[in-house]
Design goal:
This protein is of the alpha/beta class and 313 residues long. The protein contains nine helices and 17 strands. The chain has helices at residues 21-35, 53-65, 76-101, 137-146, 175-183, 214-224, 256-264, 273-287, 299-305; strands at 3-9, 44-50, 107-111, 114-116, 129-135, 151-154, 160-164, 171-172, 186-190, 196-201, 204-207, 229-234, 240-241, 249-250, 253-255, 290-295, 309-312. The strands form four sheets. An eight-stranded mixed β-sheet has the order 3-9-2-1-12-16-17-15, sandwiched between helices. Strand 6 and strand 7 form a beta hairpin. The radius of gyration is 19 Å and the shape is globular. The mean pLDDT is 92.
């Protein structure tokens, strides 16, 4: 029986300390080699989503640095579309190479994807989504002087970053097209960077300046395309409760109710694990199917031995 799986790739799947195209493509190739494990038995339809926070932020900076009156910088939503194409291109090439190395005959495509949001989402009044490079505390004053309209915040002890609005997804505009494509056996890269945020007015889709959390978009996409599983790949094999304390415990299989209790206790950091847990819980609650949170290098461990954090109804 064919399974349909939506995989949400974390930033470690693409990002390196070297932000050159060559370095990022090398990281994507390593990721693609791991992803082939989902398809090795020929019984899985795979939809891959990914983040774009560092790439979209860096491209905004490049746009601004070369902006002129006759050649103005593109708005954030359009830059999001540009990075969908950029990362999709890298991932297509990497998957083709990884499939060829294992003599796997798989078609791969990227679809530029729009994500519908509510124009009145309170997130537009409260920027929280980090994009672009990290800054040191010493650099913040200069950055703020250059870009007084930016919101700069400390990001989980790792430095300072620009933050932008991050509304919740209502729907994925291309969901039906995506479903048709995976039914035709295409391994699909979709909803990159959470999708291009759009609102709908008078039967017209209009881009808005924001970046949607890719895990929430992946959960919404998985719901809409009737996926059997949502797999969120991050930097750790398991989620922990009581992290960095003597009572630290790795979560293996947990129920939706147990996950809700841990969430209410404040067990998960808002800037890192909390949105992943919330997105996974949303998918499980709305579909009655399971969601998995584990590391990219544990894909085989999950597929063969069920290792990782698995949230069940």
């Amino acid at each position: 029986m064919t399974k349909r799986i939506v995989v949400a790739l974390g930033g470690n799947a693409i990002l390196t300390k070297d932000s050159s195209a060559e370095a990022q493509q090398a990281a994507v190739l390593s990721t693609a080699q791991q992803l082939t494990s989902f398809l090795k038995d020929g019984d899985t339809q795979l939809i891959i989503t990914h983040g774009n926070g560092p790439q979209v932020g860096n491209l905004v900076l490049q746009q601004l640095s070369g902006s002129t009156e006759k050649n103005p910088a593109m708005p954030l939503h359009t830059v999001g579309a540009m990075t969908q194409g950029e990362i999709g291109f890298w991932m297509e090439n990497a998957l083709n190479k990884a499939f060829a190395a294992k003599n796997m005959d798989e078609d791969v495509a990227t679809i530029v994807t729009r994500t519908l949001v509510d124009a009145h989402d309170p997130a537009f009044q409260n920027a929280t989504k980090p994009i672009g490079p990290f800054y040191t505390e010493a650099e913040v004053a200069d950055i703020t002087k250059q870009h007084p309209d930016w919101d700069i915040v400390e990001d989980a002890g790792r430095g300072y970053r620009r933050v932008v609005p991050s509304p919740k997804p209502i729907s994925i505009v291309e969901a039906d097209v995506i479903k048709k494509m995976v039914n035709d056996g295409i391994t699909l890269i979709a909803a990159g960077g959470g999708g291009i945020p759009v609102i709908k007015e008078n039967n017209e889709f209009i881009g808005v300046d924001a970046v949607i959390d890719k895990d929430f978009s992946a959960a919404k996409l998985a719901e809409l395309v009737d996926a059997d599983e949502l797999v969120v790949l991050t930097a750790v094999k398991n989620i922990f409760v009581n992290f960095n304390t003597p009572e630290q415990k790795a979560l293996t299989t947990v129920t939706l109710a147990q996950a809700q209790e841990y969430l209410a206790e404040g067990q998960f950091a808002a800037g890192s694990m909390k949105p992943k847990i919330e997105a996974a819980m949303s998918f499980v609650k709305l579909t009655g199917k399971k969601a998995v949170i584990t590391s990219l290098d544990n894909v085989t461990g999950y597929l063969e031995d069920g290792l990782g954090t698995i949230i069940v109804p």
